[in-house]
Amino acid sequence: MAKAKKREALRTLLFALWGMATLVLLFTVGLLAIVMAQKQQELTELSAAPEGPFPTEGESFSSRPARGIRLYYAHPDRTALQAEMRLVDLTDRTVENCRRVLNALIEGPRDRLGAVLPPATKIRGLYLLDSGELIIDFSRELEAGQVKSASAELLMAQAIANSLCQAALRGEDERAVLSVRFMLEGSPAQDTFPVHIDLSAAVQPDSSLIDSGGGEGLGDA
Question: pTM of the predicted model, to two decimals?
Fold first, then answer.
C-alpha cells in the first residue's frame, strides 16, 4: 500500500514537472513569435521608406542664398580636371546640397570643358554617414554611358569627390562630406563597374588632378 502511494506521488510530481516545462516552452515560443513579428514590421517600414534625403509630402528644405560652387569637369584634353563656377541654390541639408551639385555635374559643363558623367545618369539614393562618408547609389546608366578607360574613370571619380567635398555644401548643424563611396543599382560599384580603377573603398578628393588654369568663368544660374 505504501509503495502504491509513493508511485502515485511520483507520477503526480512527474506530471506537474511536465506541465511546468510545457508552459515554459509555450511561453518561450510565444515570446519569440512576438519578437519576430516586431522585427518583420521594422523591416517592412524600412523597405517602404523613401531612398535618400528627399523631402516627404509636406516637408521642405530651408533655402539659403545661392552661392558660386566649383564643379569639376574634364579638361579639354582629358588629362586633368578644371573647375567651372556655377550658382547653386543651397539648403540647410548637406545631402540635398550634394544632390543638387551631382545633378549639375550630370547636366554637364556650360563652356569648353568635358562632361564626366553620362547625361542619362540618375541618382537612386544619397546617404551621409557619421564619419563624413557620402554613399552615392547611381543608376545603371552610369555604367552604360561611361567611356571605359582608366583615365576617364579616374576623372569621373575625382570630379565627383572634389565637387562634393567642399565646405560650402555643409548644411547647418550637419557634418561636411569628407569622402565618397560609389554604388551601382544598390551594389558596390566594384562588383560590376568601373573596369580599370579600384572603387571598392571610399574616394577622397585628390587636388593633384586639378588644373587651376582657366575654366572658372561663372555660368548662368
Answer: 0.68
More confident residue, 25 or 178: 178
Q: For residue 10, what is its C-alpha cell?
A: 511520483
In the structure, what pLDDT confidence band is assigned to residue 124 with cuts at 50, 70 and 90? very high
Question: Letter for the amino acid at 120?
Answer: A
What separation in angstroms does the CA of 28 have from each of 32, 34, 41?
6, 10, 20
Cell output for 170: 555643409
Alpha-carbon span 127 to 148, nearest angstrom? 26
Amino acid letter at 169?
A: L
Question: Domains of the chain: which residue ranges?
Answer: 1-40, 67-209
pLDDT over threshold 80, residue 164:
yes
The span from the CA of 152 to the CA of 182, in Å, is 15
Q: Kindly calculate the radius of gyration of the chain based on its CA atoms and give it in whole angstroms.
A: 29
Give the H or E element holding residue 68: strand 67-74
**Whose grid coordinates read 553620362?**
118
Number of H helices, E strands in the chain: 4, 6
Q: Which residue has the cell 502515485?
A: 8
Which residues 6+ apart lie within 8 Å of 163 measured at CB? 69, 70, 71, 72, 101, 102, 105
- Report how far apart, in Å, the C-alpha atoms of 19 and of each of 31, 114, 199 are: 18, 78, 60
Distance CA 62, CA 81 (A): 32
